[in-house]
Amino acid sequence: MIEILKSILYGIVEGITEWLPISSTGHMILLEEIMPMNVSKSFWSMFLVVIQLGAILAVVVLYWNKIFPFRKNKEGKYTSVKSIWILWSKILVATIPAAFIGLALDDWIDAHLYNGFVVAIMLILVGVAFIYIENRNKDMCPSVNSLSALSYKDALIIGLFQVVAAVLPGTSRSGATIVGGLMIGVSRAVAAEFTFFLAIPVMFGASLLKLVKFGLAFSVLEFFILVIGMVVAFFVSIFVIRFLMSYIKKHDFKVFGWYRIVLGAFVLIFFAIRALL
């Protein structure tokens, strides 16, 4: 029962931090330091990634009309929507860099970079980047104000920023791609939406990779821990995505930058004190 309650807490944290640009993986690693699950190391490595599927499904539900490339006509037949196929081709272009790096370095990243120190440093660095870019862009009008105006070059640049998040936990996948979008003149709303859509193939691919490596030999407890975590992450994500899109209509991302800096500093102090004790 204790592990199930922990799974609910992990699902809440995942649902909040997957979409706010504050690093879901970073928060999950830090939560594990404070409240570890009584599970095997291999299950934890898989859980850390696959729980994100619940959050991703929230995007599919909320944005179905924007991402499903078929529409039913008056005769009841489905017809293809060219603009949505073009959007998916841009998502594919943006996905390729992170997919390549993820497949090549997955085990090495798990072994060497999934730790509190790396998380803390990246929380601070990306926080500083948010504040700097928002200050720089304060009096500038974005050049890309719709998904259709996003070029393939823009998509590739955003995808290259996603590579940083794929390699360095604590960066935040959404944080990295939003920073990349803002740097090249993409509006906050478009950068956020493209980040949501980009998460779909990336996280489905990453989850499949982890599941294949782990196998399907779940214990009953492990199965319930994973499913409950995903379900909680799904419902929390519905609320958080709606909140974020409403928030950025009137506000910038600097508050998330300051949050990252403060949290990163706290984490560094926490690990420094623990090392001395």
From TrEMBL:
EC number(s) reported in the record: 3.6.1.27
Protein localization: Cell membrane
UniProt key word Aminoacyl-tRNA synthetase: no
Annotated GO biological process: cell wall organization; peptidoglycan biosynthetic process; regulation of cell shape; response to antibiotic
HAMAP family per UniProt: Undec_diphosphatase
PANTHER family noted in UniProt: UNDECAPRENYL-DIPHOSPHATASE (PTHR30622:SF3)
Protein name (Swiss-Prot/TrEMBL): Undecaprenyl-diphosphatase
Source organism of the structure: Holdemanella porci
